[in-house]
Amino acid sequence: MQMLPKSHRYFAVPSFQCRAAALRYPPAPARGFHSTKSNVQNLMVNETTRVIYQGFTGKTATNNARDAIAYGTNIVGGVSPKKGGTTNLDLPVFATVREAAQSVRPNASLVHVPASFAAGAIEEAIEAEIPLIVAIVEHIPVHDMLRVHEILRTQSKSRLIGPNTPGILAPGKCRIGIIPADQCAPGKVGIISRSGTMIYEAIGATMRAGQVQSLVLGLGGDSMPGTTMKEALEVLLHDSATETIILIGEIGGSAEVEAAELLKSFRAENGMFKPVISIISGRTAPPGRSMGHARVLQDSGARVLDHPGLLENELRAIFS
Fold it and tell me: Which InterPro entries does this one have (predicted)?
């Protein structure tokens, strides 16, 4: 087995793809740190977003792509290493993401491969400078994601959503992932959620209240998300099509605290901001550990609800 030079050994990673990446990428301090804040607008997908699938010819990816095309998503092709040069759903299949990038110029990629290959697929998309990468895959090894994040910090072109995310949806325009598009409609409410299940509860509440969605974004349930709640919130706070924001967090971690700090600073700078409704999933926490996310969000000006069943009436009150 080839040993990495000492300067390149930064994380111990298990997969072959990540070991190969370690040879290509020195640690971030050696290459220079690049802020990803400049690419956060890559989250604003629409009908012009050109999407490819990685793992395109698999059965579930094919079915997902067929549904997305029927919805109106602009799927332009896909990648399957052993089937390059063929077609699937009358769309071209490429052997590599770089070939796809050069040929069909995608703006986004949906990573639809097994967990053991997912980190390598994400890295390949980063190398090809795909602006938005959506990884719906769950159970990616933590050490693989450590390496992915190290690579993300060395560049400023690509933005990752996930892993373990239901994806992103601009109702009536573009679906990348598994969010049920037929349950959504274009509107004025932006939804950001760490919880996959709760994102569907929020969609249902907006539909029943008659105040539907501008953008639905699942951050992913893993411990190392590519896009944080704070980053997603900042986009919707500045989005002219979004009038109200639903923010769904979970107990544990600092994502909600960081989002609350952003809300507080945004209010101080702008005087007013859009109504933000927040729900924190989970009733229990480890004994002796303080998790005051709800209080912090409330102090920042968000309307914190105790139960998702209250969301519909809260929306009706805001828009009445």
Answer: CoA-bd, CoA_lig_alpha, NAD(P)-bd_dom_sf, SUCC_ACL_C, Succinyl-CoA_synth-like
149 catalytic, yes or no? no
Strands (DSSP E) contained in the chain are: 50-54, 74-79, 87-88, 91-94, 108-111, 132-135, 159-161, 167-170, 174-177, 186-193, 213-218, 244-250, 276-281, 303-305
Per-residue pLDDT of 131-146, as tens digits, reads 999 999 999 999 999 9
Where along the chain do its domains lie? 22-161, 184-319
- Is there a contact between 152 and 146 (Cβ–Cβ < 8 Å)? no
Q: Which one from 139, 149, 293, 307 is the annotated catalytic residue?
A: 293
Q: Quick check: 60 and 112 in contact, CB under 8 A? A: yes
> pTM of the prediction?
0.87
**CATH of region 22-161, choose from 3.40.50.720, 1.10.10.60, 1.10.760.10, 3.40.50.1460:** 3.40.50.720
